[in-house]
Amino acid sequence: MVERLIQQASSYAHSIDGLILLVTVLVGFWFLLAEGIFFWLIWRFRAKPGVKSQYITGKEKHLKRWVTIPHALVLVCDVFIIIGAVQVWYNVKQHLPEADATVRVIGQQWAWIFQHPGLDNELDTGDDIWTTDDLYVAADKTYHFQLQSRDVLHSFSVPVFRLKQDAVPGRTITGWFHPTVAGTFDIQCAEICGIGHGVMLGRINVQDATEHAAWIALNNSVSAQ
Amino acid sequence: MAQAATVETHGHEAHGQGHHGPEGILKYIWSTDHKIIGMQYLFTGMFMGLIGGLMAYVFRMQLAFPGISVPGFGVVSPGEYNALVTNHGSIMIFWVAMPVLIAAFGNYLIPLMIGADDMVFPRLNRLSYQIFLASAILILASLFVEGGGFGGAWTSYPPLSANENYNLTRLGSTLWLSAVALEFVAFLLGGINFIVTLMNARAPGMKAYDIPLVAWMIVIASILFMLSVGPLMAGAVMLLFDQTLGTGFYDPLRGGDPILWQHLFWFFGHPEVYVVLLPAIGIVIEIVATFARKKLFGYKIMLYTAVATGVLSFFVWAHHQFVAGIDPRMANVFTVTTLLISVPIAELLFVIIATLYGGSITFTTPMLWALAFIAEFLIGGVTGIFLGASGADIYLHDTYFVLAHFHYTFFPIAIIGTFAALSFWFPKMFGRMMNETLGKIHFWGTVIPFNFIFIPLFVLGLGGQHRRIYNFQNFPELAEMQPLRIVATVSLIVMLLFQIPFFYNLFHSMRKGPKADRNPWRSNTLEWTTESPPPHGNWPPDQMPKVYRGPYEYSHPDRAEDYWPQNLPN
Fold first, then answer.
1. Which of A51, A75, A196 sits opposite B343 (nearest CB)?
2. Which chain B residues touch A198 with a CB distance below 8 Å?
3. What's the CA gap between A72 and B322, in Å, rounded?
4. pTM confidence score
């Protein structure tokens, strides 16, 4: 459902969209049923001359079950949704798969600073590549990101990845993503961060492996000089 | 019946005091009459609602037509945009939903519905309104100070809200916070009064299960508010110190923690949803029972479900913080509690829907509003499930999906609920009837555009559009969805224009409408047994009502008439 509005470009995008679809089907069923019964009752029991309302207290067992049975079924649906939600959450947020590379993402008013590993594929060494507002990653590799903020709360959001994580000053929050499609996509700041919040946008450039290697080599020679 | 005896003593005091009280315009400033205080809250709340609505007009124009000079306002700067969305949210929740649903109708209805001559603490009640009025003036003033109004969202997350170097609104943010804190004080005073009044001042014979549910709901809401607001008040004082004294409660560089505020805020902020929801549900129950001519399907189920909802609402707050940097394992706990709260909420709606079965429904304006509440609130309820499911919230958090979801809860609550209540109790409040044709024009002109505002926003949110961004043209992936933004804005303008017939109907009917008798809707509860409008003291002292049965005895088989007022011995 969501993929018709916005591309899926990470390994977990389809599972999040799948969960949204599951919720849509389950709650959609209840919604249509409840609204259907509701409007039918309104139509069926509209005032007619000479017809008096029935006196129903709600204590009659055979009538009470019209409320208690749906009520129990709502609980059953909840259980299915909880199982789905916890599974997706565990895979995306709780479990960190082995990383091919780590990038550091730093939010500040009002720009994104990205620290990429250089040829040695390690952060905080002399050949790190620093950029502003443009993040460069290779497709089909697993990345860890270390998210930091220099001032207020920001939120690192890549809608095509279905990824979102707040950046909190004073903390480093580690998460992961695995891009699957090459291309250039939006990074939005998703937490209000002052008057420049609306222009705090970045781009994530997902390159294929050779292109990305070339980009690293180019920038490595620039920073080595 | 010792209880009732004390009430009567008290009643004479309050009654006498009113007679020797101030006259003329001063009556409205110094009155301790619960009906006048209720109307003061009502009109202040509606005035603030108009301001909040016009704010929405300004920022929706900017979103639909970025950079346009908005007629009546001018070009919207990013700072002004942030201030507008922040204050729209704050005003609609704290200065519209709460004063109208709880304070206005609570004040007006509780003493009348339980057969008391006034609140137990009339002077406290007056003080509550005066503090509330001061807070309303303060929030409006905060928009006009140097640097502009506060623009850190209604949630006011630090460090942005705590440090003027970050928010650039030194005065605006402090005034905003002070206004919100004052408003809480006003509601604490009012809430104490509602609870004490309901517990102690009921008419002789009115047992716990004979109390009209709207009175119960307002009291449960007041209890929820009192239990949840304490932590936030402490949090607000710490934030105020961070802003003005340079303390570092929320500053990580000095050992503080910004997430602390989020916990304190949402520990209040989530129960707050039910604080305004329950009174609206109560209003809908009264109206549905009256116009379906039906006994409520399960009074006790309704009451206990409301209590259960209230208790559960204290255990769900961190679903607002799934991606905020809390321990990811915590999300699993809060997903479970959040989804469980759908069970009592569904129960509340099922019971109201079941009440329609076997009824004889007339479609008066108040009934249309009450039915619209159920139809629309259902959308708000089911879309909440998406956000409570932690895995889906990773994507949907802070998008327009969230925004559309909570407008589908708050709009039915605060706007539809208010119009339902106002059109239903208008004859009692002003002694005249409102015009039904104008009422129905207003109804359809409000409810249809409402859906056309927010359904496009659901789609935008699913498409990945985030909140609080003043120009989406900057984002290549979002720019092309502009037609949806224009539909929403145009619908908002249509909806705002359809408020004109309402205000005309309100003010015209108040003076010129056909006279209403005591009980124009043939309803059961006690407020309909006195004159319209009720005199000071509500009933003549020797005719205070006694109660013989529950509030929803409609169409009883032993009676020829299809209603059975609570005060009739048989």
1. A75
2. 78, 81, 468-471, 474
3. 27
4. 0.94
